Amino acid sequence: MPLENCYNKNLLEAGCDEAGRGCLAGPVFAAAVILPNDFEHPLLNDSKKVNERDRLILKEIIEKQALAWAVAQVDAPEIDKINILNASILAMKKAVEKLTIIPDFLLIDGNRFTKYKDIPHKCIVKGDAKFANIAAASILAKTHRDEFALKMHEEFPIYQWDKNKAYPTEIHREMIKIHGITYYHRKTFKLFEHQLSLQF
Predict the structure, then answer these.
(1) In the prediction, which pLDDT does 194 show?
(2) Residue 177: its pLDDT value, please?
């Protein structure tokens, strides 16, 4: 099924999504994207369903053709402080704040968000597979986060972040057991029960 361009064609709408929520290290990234009403691309989909080569192709197209786009991050110490759910929401709000055009409406991937200024929003579960503007945001958040993971890898190659992008693979966990953690690691990554409550 083709993606809907946006939720409300009568409003200037920004799609928002995050990447890296389930990682053990590094920031959570988020993107906000305002697409032209006539934007479409056959490769565009939820970033998890698009291979790396096509994600990079889409990244260039989206950044060139979007009316406005922005990417923001919340680093590991802040994630540990406010929890990953709040950090994901904060990253999306930071991305919206950086947009060069103020949107009339925010379309959010997932089922949790808190009010941002006076801009109304709508949460869509699996929205990155339903709406082009959220899918575009998922592509930008994922590609920018992967670039950051490669920079982390240059500093700490033993964790193989060039391959696992800091997700909890068996090798990543094994290297943590052997070598301990870095300042990039989220020190609360084992406390999953404390990572799902909204605080603001």
Answers:
(1) 42
(2) 87
The answer as to whether 182 is a domain residue is no
Backbone phi and psi for residue 125, each to the nearest 5 degrees, phi listed first: -65, 130
Q: Phi and psi (nearest 5°) for 34? A: -110, 115
Strands 105-109, 68-74: pairing kind: unpaired
User: CA 99 to CA 174: how far, in whole Å?
Assistant: 40
Residue 127: inside a domain: yes
Q: Among candidates 37, 35, 40, which has minimal Cα distance to 14?
A: 35
Please tell me the distance from the alpha carbon of residue 198 to that of residue 128, in angstroms, as a whole number: 22
Can you give the pLDDT at residue 193?
36
Quote the domain boundaries for residue 138. 13-148
Tell me which DSSP letter residue 44 carries: -
Q: Residue 23: phi, psi to the nearest 5?
A: -75, 160
On whether residue 25 sits in a domain, the answer given is: yes
CA 192 – CA 188 distance, rounded (Å) = 8
Those residues whose C-beta lies under 8 Å from the C-beta of residue 168, and which sit 6 or more positions away, are 22, 23, 24, 189
Contact 30, 18 (CB under 8 A): yes
Instruction: Please give the model's pTM, rounded to 2 decimal places.
Output: 0.92
Q: State how many domains the chain has.
A: 1
